Amino acid sequence: MKRKGTGPDGLVIVDKPEGITSHGVVAKLRWLAGTRKVGHAGTLDPMATGVLVIGVERATRLLGHLMLTAKTYDATVRLGQTTVTDDREGEVTAATPADGVAREAIDAEIAKLTGEIMQVPSKVSAIKIDGKRSYARVREGEDFELAARPTTVHSFTVHEVRAAVAEDGTPVLDLDVTVECSSGTYIRALARDLGAALGVGGHLTMLRRTKVGPYGVESAHTLEQLEEKLDVLPIADAAAAAFPRWDIDAEQAKLLSNGMRLPAPGLGVDGPIAVFDPDGRFLALVEEHGGKAKPVAVFVG
């Protein structure tokens, strides 16, 4: 039986469990909220857990802008094995003992993967090539290459290096790390490239997203908790938390609601600004261009 929803309007911060796709979480939230208008900001693989930002009703229009914000991940990188998917779910394609890799070498290569870098995404990513997902091409046995693209790794921190033995008997090193990065960074690709640079191969064995923009895992809810109570962050609160705030007067609010462009607030912000009227009502996202506040998404009128 389809659940009767109340049509909430805002964001739901989900702590995604392992073994379910992001689309599966969206489907669950559609049922809980009683609406088809549900989406997510930034896919998590089934193996990954952690923060998945879900938009409901009007808040779906915030998602494209939230996807551009920074993200933080905790992960475990295994050095000594290469897999077809760059994570533990894929078949091992090569194994090289990693017990001789020095910590100094690890740190040196991680430094090269920090900052503004060019990264080739994993072939099993959701990137589209001529309208077809990369992972679908892999499943069909296609031989192709992906182009490198710019991304930024703000920090790549190693907390612990642990010696272990893989199931095939290969001596490996497991690195517990935290990565803070820009949108579009593939943590699997960092593991792959670190292992390749060290000459032993590498892949991910664990991935947990702990933060998307201002939304951290400490404020996220499990699916079981959401089944008990659908906790929705109101759209005004969500916008205020995620973007710089601009409060305007009643006359400006009227002009903006009628489609007029306002003089830019002069915040010097590169990206969306959340606009609020004197009553605290969220009106729009705007960007500063040529001295004007250009609307990128209007939520009234």
Automatic annotation (TrEMBL):
Residues annotated as domain Pseudouridine synthase II N-terminal: 30-187
Every tRNA pseudouridylate synthase B C-terminal domain range: 188-228
Any single GO BP term: tRNA pseudouridine synthesis
Annotated EC: 5.4.99.25
An example Gene Ontology molecular-function term: RNA binding
Domain tRNA pseudouridine synthase II TruB subfamily 2 C-terminal, chain residue ranges per copy: 243-299
Record keywords, A-Z: Isomerase, tRNA processing
Entry-linked InterPro entries: PsdUridine_synth_cat_dom_sf (IPR020103), PsdUridine_synth_N (IPR002501), PUA-like_sf (IPR015947), PUA_sf (IPR036974), tRNA_psdUridine_synth_fam2_C (IPR015225), tRNA_psdUridine_synth_TruB (IPR014780), TruB_C (IPR032819)
Catalysed reactions, as listed in the record: uridine(55) in tRNA = pseudouridine(55) in tRNA
Classification via Pfam families: TruB_C (PF09142), TruB_C_2 (PF16198), TruB_N (PF01509)
Active-site residues, as the UniProt record annotates them: D45
Signal sequence extent: none
Functional summary from the UniProt entry: Responsible for synthesis of pseudouridine from uracil-55 in the psi GC loop of transfer RNAs.
Family: Belongs to the pseudouridine synthase TruB family. Type 1 subfamily.
Full protein name: tRNA pseudouridine synthase B
Organism whose genome encodes this protein: Kitasatospora cheerisanensis KCTC 2395
Gene for this chain: truB
